[in-house]
Design goal:
Helices cover 27% and strands 34% of the residues. The mean pLDDT is 81.
Length: 593
């Protein structure tokens, strides 16, 4: 056990974690690196150049004539995948904190670091991309020293591209990170930190053994669900899964036990023996709190059950996704899904399409609100369609967040304007070092779920980094904005918005829908309404056909007769005709600006 080291790599997005992981794998001769980011095995990760899943892999390294086993977990850097990071941290004793030498400390660097410190991990600071012309190693080292309070000689200078500093990193991992502690004689306790679905083998769970020994063929049970299984195959994770006869305390590995239903595996659960169970489960996992809710509906109604199965399989692989069934008048049956952010929502939609071949419609994302009625009761509403009658509502509370934005001083003005436009209140601003400033804002979560991050990136030319956490609910003056087509409300387009923004938003939505809804043979009225009050209207003119073209000459009453006949037809068509809202319209509402 004293020769095992479990560590993860944490950093802000784009600071070169996966590239550095490649160099470590190459140096320890675990695999031959044939292309960049070997651990990012999803097509989507390769295309976008981001890590979406944490990836665990085992390396062997010889140091001073002794053989060490290093279990490395490469984690994502984007704020939307921070739940992946928290699970990886729970399975480790140490972390490599990577900072880009040309960009310095950014928001996710800080929040991932705090997460690691809460779990008492040993932190090894690494300055990456030192080979770049724009690198500022001295200044960035000062920032790291301010942040960690470490000594300058503890910071390792490295480059994922050239492989500089890789040997020092491996030495530091062996020397500085403590080996796992546990008791091999004690009852088995293993923490599940991830799981994947395999259509041939069932569900494969990844775990780290805290105490005890697990052997192939053992009878095991999952502590929280109480289900019992046989350990058909256990092993360690290299680039592929490598079976082993037994895994001891401190090892990270996988178990295949023929589990078929996804509800039986919960990330954060404990595996123990049936014969000699442990007395309590391992603690250290908080439940995930989704930030953004959106309805996901199948395009064909009969795909509903397939969509449910696909979401369950996806949830195994991505534990931060939550969903429950709901129905909508416009879209039929579907699911209300909870996501950690907008990028997460986009990735889930892409993965449903690619991995499960599911075409889905996603409604406008929103957050959950607390609605207090006049009797003093309270209910939580995720969907504007589920709101009680406005006359019964006493007040509505919406979730607020504490946001921290780190940027250079050149962009303070535009960023403050953006935050004020989103109903943000400036709490304080701190100057970190040189020309970097950290702004602390308190703002409503509902204002930032749609396009805040994109706007922030564009006005700061990509230099501002943004991180947030929820800070509870506060009362707000919110109204429900409905969109009506020919007097019929389209529930998938209704939104909850602040009273001050309602008129402007209603007008813009009507204008956008006028461009996107195709013309019919009858006139379509698009209206935005708050309760019974119409606040904006656009009209889509009917497609005209010249019915009197075949009347040449003769009495005018013949023309009259044809026009009257057409007028009756149009009236009937308008009564029974329905307006199809294209998928583009749902998406365009998100990108109104």
């Amino acid at each position: 056990m004293k020769n095992i080291r479990n560590f993860c790599i944490i950093a802000h997005i784009d600071h070169g974690k996966s590239t550095l992981a490649d160099r470590l794998l190459e140096y320890t001769q675990t695999i031959k690196v044939t292309e960049g980011q070997m651990l990012d095995d999803m097509d989507l990760e390769r295309e976008r150049g981001i890590t979406i899943k944490s990836h665990a892999i085992q390396m062997e390294y010889t140091y001073n004539g002794e053989k060490y086993i290093l279990n490395l977990i490469d984690t994502p850097g984007h704020v939307d995948f921070s739940y992946e990071v928290s699970r990886s941290i729970a399975a480790c004793e140490g972390a490599l904190l990577i900072v880009d030498a040309s960009q310095g400390v950014q928001a996710q660097t800080i929040s991932n670091l705090y997460m690691a410190l809460e779990h008492d991990l040993e932190i090894i600071p690494v300055l990456n991309k030192c080979d770049m012309a724009s690198a500022m190693p001295e200044e960035v080292e000062d920032e790291i020293i301010d942040l960690l309070g470490c000594k300058r000689e503890e910071i390792i200078r490295a480059s994922g591209k050239t492989g500089m500093g890789v040997e020092e990193i491996l030495k530091a991992v062996v020397e500085r990170i403590p080996h796992p502690v546990g008791d091999e004689e004690a009852p088995l306790q293993a923490l599940i930190f991830d799981s994947v679905f395999n259509s041939f083998r069932g569900i494969i769970a990844y775990f780290k053994i805290e105490n005890g020994v697990l052997r192939t063929g053992d009878k095991v049970k999952f502590f929280n669900t109480g289900k019992e299984y046989d350990a058909d195959e256990i092993g360690v994770l290299k680039m592929d899964m490598v079976p082993r006869k037994e895994l001891r305390t401190g090892d990270v590995g996988y178990i295949i036990s023929g589990i078929k239903t996804s509800k039986e595996v919960k990330v954060g659960d404990t595996i123990t023996h049936i014969a000699k169970p442990c007395d309590k489960a391992i603690d250290g996992f908080e439940e995930v709190k989704p930030m953004v809710f959106a309805g996901v509906y199948p395009i064909e109604a009969e795909d509903y059950e397939n969509l449910r199965a696909s979401l369950e399989k996806l949830q195994l692989n991505d534990a931060s996704l939550t969903f429950q069934p709901e129905s909508s008048l416009a879209l039929g049956f579907g699911f209300r899904c909870g996501f950690l952010g907008l990028l997460h929502m986009e990735i889930v939609q892409e993965r449903l399409d690619r991995e499960f071949d599911m075409n889905v419609i996603t409604t406008v994302p929103n957050v959950s609100y607390m609605i207090y009625d006049k009797q003093g009761g309270v209910q939580e509403v995720h969907n504007p369609g589920g709101m009680p009658d406005p006359t019964l509502i006493d007040h509505i509370e919406e979730p607020f967040i504490d946001a921290s934005i780190i940027t250079s001083t050149d962009y303070i003005g535009p960023i403050m304007t953006l935050c004020l436009g989103k109903r943000g209140e400036l709490v304080r601003q701190d100057y970190i070092s040189g020309n970097r400033v950290e702004l602390h804002y308190r703002m409503p979560l509902g204002e930032i779920v749609i396009d805040f991050y994109d706007k922030l990136k564009s006005i700061s030319k990509g230099y501002a980094s943004f991180d947030y956490h929820q800070s509870g609910f506060r009362p707000s003056k919110l109204v429900k904005l409905d969109i009506l087509l020919n007097g019929e409300s389209v529930d998938a387009l209704s939104t909850l918005t602040h009273f001050d923004n309602a008129y402007d938003l209603g007008r813009r939505m009507c204008e956008k829908l006028k461009e996107l809804i195709p013309r019919q043979q009858f006139e379509i009225a698009i209206q935005a309404a708050i309760g019974a009050k119409i606040i904006a209207r656009e009209t889509i003119k009917a497609v005209r056909k010249d019915v009197t073209a075949k009347c040449y000459g003769g009495d005018v009453s013949r023309k009259r007769k044809l026009l009257e006949k057409q007028k009756k037809g149009k009236k009937r068509m308008k009564q029974i005709g329905t307006v199809e809202v294209p998928q583009k319209a749902f998406l365009a509402v998100l990108k109104l600006d």
